[in-house]
Design a protein that fits this description.
InterPro entries: FP_C, Znf_FYVE_PHD, Znf_PHD. Keywords: Coiled coil, Metal-binding, Zinc, Zinc-finger. This protein folds into three domains: 1-78, Herpes Virus-1; 82-153; 180-287, 2-Layer Sandwich (Alpha-Beta Plaits). By secondary structure, the protein is α+β, with helices and mostly antiparallel strands. The radius of gyration is 60 Å and the shape is rod-shaped. The strands form four sheets. A four-stranded antiparallel beta sheet has the order 6-7-5-8, with helices on one face. A three-stranded antiparallel beta sheet has the order 9-10-11, covered by helices on one side. Strands 1-2 form a two-stranded antiparallel ribbon. Helices cover 43% and strands 12% of the residues.
Length: 345
């Protein structure tokens, strides 16, 4: 490599073009090693040649090996506050920034490690939960298997019997709530009628003294029926089937008295009730729940086909008797119809 004739430092091959070269002795100088009046020109002569004391011949690169580039030795770094202060400042800033980056990297690495630790803990908890869930599912499977075996062995029929008995008990509770109610059916319905006055007129016709204070409520129930081809409200219900009149009394004794009188005067009609429609027979019965009403209809249908003489209700219960001297039977369900009458309902 070539040395500078002033500072004796090695000059990199790439920097030789920037240096001044003596045209007489060939010595190369750094630009900053020359004084202000010694700047290089195309025919420049170094100070040594000018003073008659030329420097030794410059050192040129020696070949290292055939086919290989010459080895460039690094230029020794000499502290020079004039030329290297900026580089030193840049190096210090780089070191500070590098230290900060390393610190941030360590902090982020610590945070990642903590997240991994938490993730492992959560995975462990999930595994425990899955294990507990699998155990519970296995227990439920075992219980289901036991229940299926019980059903196959006849336990299901016992459960169905219990459910049917509970339904009957609920129906009886509902029937008790209707203990003070009567239902007057087939009584002609007219527009603007007063249901309270109607039931009082019916009671008078049956020979029962009824006061308005004995009545809690009186109203027609169900959807209003119209005769075929009937339009508007005029005469509505006159030719169609009238809705039943439901009455609730304050005392059960009043209800029992009215139903007993209706049995005695069976066949009473709506004549003399101040109605414009044609007279028709009406019927006063205890009000039944929907289940009991359907069951009573089935009982009457089967009993009439088999010529049973007595089919009636009392206190919300359905009874049947074949003859005068035969025992009575309490009908609670369709199974009782099959058992009492010996046929399917």
């Amino acid at each position: 490599m070539t040395k500078c004739g002033g500072c004796k430092k090695y000059i990199a091959r790439a920097d030789i073009a920037k240096c001044a070269k003596c045209t007489k002795c060939g010595t190369v100088y750094h630009p900053f090693c020359l004084k202000g009046d010694e700047e290089g020109t195309p025919n420049w002569v170094c100070p040594g040649c000018v003073s008659g004391n030329p420097p030794p011949a410059p050192i040129v690169d020696a070949p290292v090996a055939e086919g290989m580039d010459s080895l460039e030795l690094p230029e020794p770094v000499v502290s020079d506050g004039r030329h290297n202060s900026t580089a030193n400042d840049t190096t210090e800033e780089f070191k500070v920034e590098l230290g900060l980056e390393i610190r941030l990297f360590r902090e982020e690495l610590s945070a990642v490690r903590e997240e991994i630790r938490l993730f492992r803990a959560e995975v462990k908890d999930l595994k425990s939960s899955f294990a507990a869930t699998d155990e519970r599912i296995s227990t439920l499977d075992s219980r289901v298997d036991v229940l299926e075996k019980r059903v196959m062995e006849g336990s299901g029929s016992r459960l169905e019997a219990v459910i049917a008995e509970l339904r009957l008990e609920l129906n009886e509770k509902d029937q008790e709530l209707l203990g003070n109610d009567v239902e007057v059916s087939n009584l002609p319905e007219e527009n603007g009628e007063n249901a309270t006055h109607m039931i009082m007129a019916v009671a008078t016709k049956l020979g029962v003294t009824l006061r308005e204070s004995d009545i809690v409520s009186a109203e027609r129930v169900g959807a209003r029926r119209r005769a075929p081809g009937e339009g508007g409200d005029a005469g509505a219900g006159a030719a169609g089937r009238p809705r039943p009149l439901v009455v609730r009394f304050t005392r059960r004794a009043v209800k029992d008295e009215l139903t007993a009188a209706a049995r005695v005067r069976r066949g009473a009609t709506s004549a003399d009730l101040s109605q414009s429609s044609a007279p028709r027979p009406f019927y006063v019965n205890e009000r039944l729940t929907k289940y009991n009403r359907q069951l009573y209809y089935q009982t009457r249908d089967v009993g009439r086909r088999l010529s049973w003489r007595f089919l009636w209700t009392k206190k919300g219960r359905i009874y049947a008797r074949q003859g005068q001297d035969t025992p009575r039977h309490w009908i609670r369900s369709a199974d009782d119809i099959s058992r009492v009458f010996g046929v399917a309902s």
